[in-house]
Amino acid sequence: MAWTPLLLALLSHCTGSLSQPVLTQPPSLSASPGATARLTCTLSSDLSVGGKNIYWYQQKPGSPPRYLLRFYSDSNKHQGSGVPSRFSGSKDASANAGLLLISGLQPEDEADYYCATYHGSGSSFSYPQCLRGRGSETKTPGPRGSLAEVVFTQPRSVSGSPGQKAVISCTRSSGSIGDNYVYWYQQRPGSAPTLMIYNYDQRPSGVPGRFSGSVDRSSNTAHLTITGLQPEDEADYHCLSGYDSY
Predict the structure, then answer these.
(1) Whether residue 39 is found in the same domain as residue 127
(2) In sequence order, what are the residues at sequence separation of 6 or more whose Cβ sits closer than 8 angstroms to the Cβ of residue 164?
(3) Using one digit for the tens of pLDDT, what is the confidence trace for 77-91?
(4) Beta-sheet pairing, 111-119 with 122-125
(5) What's the CATH code of the domain at 60?
(6) 209 CB burial (10 A radius; 0-12, 13-18, 19+)
(7) How far is Cα 85 from Cα 103, in angstroms, rounded to an integer?
(8) CB 170 within 8 A of CB 223
(9) Total tally of structural domains belonging to the chain
(10) Which residue did the predictor score with more confidence, 245 or 98?
(11) What are the two backbone dihedrals, phi and then psi, of residue 24, each rounded to the nearest 5 degrees?
(12) What residue ranges in the chain does DSSP mark as E strands?
C-alpha cells in the first residue's frame, strides 16, 4: 500500500489550533516506511516532565482515539492491549518533553497522534501531531499472528432533545469492566478530545455537573449520563480504558 494517496486525507483532517497551552507538538512529521519516527510532546514551563505520566493516542479519520501507551520511566510504563512493541515511550528531560518512538514505520501508522498528561483534577491534550508518509514505496505485509484485544462497544449514535437526558453506554467484550478504569472523552470536529469523566465516575474540574459516569457490573457496561442536554453537547463521545490509573 502506497503512502502518498493518504496524504490528502490527513492534510484536510489536521486543521485548527492548539486546544490547550499546557502541551505542544509540532504540527506534522514526515517519514518513510521502515524508518523510525520520533514524536515530541513539550510540557509548559510550570510542569516538569520528570514527574508526569505521558499518555499517547493514535487517531485515524473517522475513528475514535486509540490508547497506545503510558510512559513515566523505563521501570514504570504501560503498553496498550494489542499495541506492537515498535511503539515505545521515552522522555527528554533537557527539553521537558515526552517522546513517542515508532520503529519500522508501516503505511498504517499514518495518523494523528495525541499526547496527554494529567495535572491536578484535570487533563491536557495536545492538538494532534500528524505523521505523514513520504514516498510511494509499497510494502507487502508478512505473516501476522492474532492478538487478543478487549473490545469496547458503543452505539453509533444517541439522540436527545434540549433539556432531556442522554445515556451513552460502553460495553466491554471480555473480562470485567472493573479490571481497568474507564475514561470518557468529548470530541468536536477539528478539536482535541476533552476529558469528561475519569476513574469511572470522577469529574475533572471545569466539567459541568450534568455530566456523570457510572458502571453496571452485571452488564459489564460503563455509562456516561448527560442531564439537561444543551446544543453544545452535540459531539463525539469516546470511552477509553485498558491502562493504569494515573
Answers:
(1) yes
(2) 228, 229
(3) 999 889 999 999 999
(4) antiparallel
(5) 2.60.40.10
(6) exposed
(7) 9
(8) yes
(9) 2
(10) 98
(11) -135, 145
(12) 23-24, 28-31, 37-43, 54-59, 66-73, 76-79, 87-92, 97-102, 111-119, 122-125, 129-133, 152-153, 166-172, 183-187, 194-197, 211-216, 221-226, 236-240
Q: Closest Cα partner for 52 from 42, 37, 38? A: 42
- Residues 30-40 as b or e (16 or more Cβ within 10 Å = b): ebebeeebebb
Are residues 129 and 161 part of one domain? no
Residue corresponding to grid cell 499514518: 110
Contact 230, 161 (CB under 8 A): no
Same domain for 163 and 190? Answer: yes
Q: Are residues 46 and 129 in the same domain?
A: yes
Q: How far, in Å, CA of 125 to CA of 123, rounded?
A: 7
Q: Do you know the residue count of the chain? A: 246
Tens digit of each residue's pLDDT (9 = 90 or more) over 191-214: 777 888 888 888 888 899 999 999
CA distance 229 to 164: 5
Q: Longest C-alpha distance within the chain, in Å?
A: 53
Domain containing residue 157: 152-240
